[in-house]
Every structure is written in C-alpha cells, then in structure tokens.
Specification:
Number of strands: 5
Distance between the termini: 66 Å
Strand order of the largest sheet: 3-2-1-4-5
Number of helices: 1
Shape: elongated
C-alpha cells in the first residue's frame, strides 16, 4: 500500500496537520496538532498503509519524525464524560403514567 505521511507545521498562528499538501486539521497548539496527526496516521495504518508523523518545530527547521505506525503507540482517548443538562426553574419534570391496556 501507499505511504501516508502527515506533517505538522505552523502557519499564520495556527498549527496545521497536512497530508499530501492538503490541510486536514487546524489547531491552536502544537501538542493538539501532533495528537490529531497521530490519530489520523493510526487510522491509515489500520487500513494497511505505512503511516508516520513529521513535525516542523520552527519555520525552516529540519523536520522531526515523531511517530511511526507499528512502532509507536497511538494516544489513548480520554474517557468521555456524559454531558449533564441543567434543569431550569421554568421546566417541570413530568412522570409518564403507563397506559392501561384495554382488556
């Protein structure tokens, strides 16, 4: 299969994740962008592509290989916390009464 190489670069105040010259994601911090790139590369690796992530720490600096599918571990997703919808004083809870079946 093909090689999927993701690049993390800084551009106009954002960190971009690119693949084959196309922007795949935009983040406010380098760690967020690197994590995002690794998740994408891990998915490509799971589809039997060779995949890795390269980072350019400063514009014009040498690229640094930070992650390779099959050699490095993918980041673990944080546990999802269920969102609790607050009750509003103007909303009343209604208990449903089961309907009686006609006998």
């Amino acid at each position: 299969m093909s090689h999927a190489r993701y690049f993390v670069i800084r551009y106009n105040g954002h960190w971009l994740v690119t693949l084959e010259g196309r922007t795949m994601a935009r983040h406010h911090s380098q760690p967020q962008a690197v994590n995002s790139a690794i998740v994408m590369a891990d998915l490509m690796g799971a589809m039997r592509h060779d995949a890795d992530v390269m980072v350019e720490d400063q514009q014009g600096a040498a690229l640094r290989l930070v992650w390779v599918y099959g050699q490095d571990r993918a980041p673990v997703a944080p546990p999802r916390v269920p969102q609790v919808v607050p009750l509003h004083s103007h909303v009343k809870r209604v208990q449903r009464v089961p309907e009686l079946s006609a006998s």
